[in-house]
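FAQ: What does a multi-protein file look like?

Like this. Sequence, then tokens, then the next protein.
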Amino acid sequence: MKERVKQVKEVKKKSKINWKVLISCFIIVAIVAFLGSTFTSQNTNSQWYQSIKPSITPPNYVFPIVWTILFILIAISLYLSWIDSKDKTKIVVIFSVNFLLNILWSIFYFGMRNPRVAFIEIIFLWLSIFWMLVVTRKFSKKAFWLLIPYFIWVTFAAVLNFLSI
């Protein structure tokens, strides 16, 4: 009986949303999105980008839609990982590394207009997402599944990056 009461309390505790943490996760991810977009948005219609853009590249309007969805999923994954993890430091490190690499890709590709360096960097970004998947899977299956679209999209972005070299 005591064990059952304990299980019910754990379920209630897990089902309660920690709004402060959730909002913080969305703010952090929004900052990452904003920083990356400052290098990207002004260059997607440039003559330089149009001259190297692979033919399989989706129309420009697709990217902000996809990235908005991905950043929402990443923020929720960060929240779930934070809530479910007993190793908060590991979560901070893994997501921070990924966020930095995400921003750096925009700087290298669009800011510096250097697809070669950006391609090397996107490999590290891809590996950081893989690392996120491995780690989050241990803490939260939901957080893991929310990152799968990000992994797939960055894989596609790496192909586009490679083709633009």
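And here is the next protein:
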Amino acid sequence: MDNSLNIEDLAILRDVAIDFGMLGDDYIVAYFKPEAIDREILSVPTSIAGLTYCLLKKGHATINIDFKEVAMSPNSLMATDSNSRFSLKSLAAHGTEVFMMCFSSKFLHDLNFDMHTLNLHEFVDNRPDAIIKLTDSEAQLMEHLALVLLKNAKYNSEPTFSLQIARSVTQALIYQQLQIFSSRRPKSIVGNDTPTGSRQLAYVQEFMRQLQLHHSHHRAIAFYADKLCISQKYLSHVIKEATGRSATEWIAEYVVMEAKNLLRFSNKNVQQVAYSLNFPTQSSFGKYFKHVTGISPSEFLKG
């Protein structure tokens, strides 16, 4: 039987953790010894809603992730999302210590990222392993960010500031994780070094560059195909093949992220944001935003 957990469920770690911080239903950071937890609980395949990092500080363990057994040694980092299921297969008898950071989907949804930076990490056929070995300096940096989040949850009492600190530090943490994983990835994007592969790579890079420049005013695939001097059909094919997502999805990703930034951090109201993003009416902007995110701009602002 599988076990599906959310942030509130993980509050039980407070009783066994060496140190523990929890910010509402946004995130938890726990520093604990797995040996303090019932092994039967750890052996049940578990998924955690949102994004989870486990940094093994000391000891050794074997984890089953989506039916694949992987060994963890000191400085190993595990990264899983809501679709991953993991369980403990074996554990060193004594001395194993783990930093665990879990971020809810809702909290992650409200973060603001430089989409161009994130996009560059999608264009690889082989995604990184769920568990990678960090260098000492990489592990120390990830641990430092985890401690900032832990202390923010424990000691910062003003909700507005603690939430903004949490968002900023979590962004830094995820960027750092991407940097670490990127350094282990093959450099080929479309999977080969043939002239065709190189040309496709050039189209993908140029599409993303043009999208970064023009997403606030242009949402039609035709506009970007014209910029690249290729057909809409070919552009759609290349982007889908290289990234696993359609050109339309990437355009929507950029537009909505820009909209979120404007809604949350500018002094513009919803109507002004709509006009800034070249929507003819506030209503058309609202429909677009809700179609992509599942909530209206007004609901986003209340979140």
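Q: Is there any per-entry metadata?
A: Some entries carry free-text notes. For the entry above: The chain has two domains: 3-106+132-183, 195-302.
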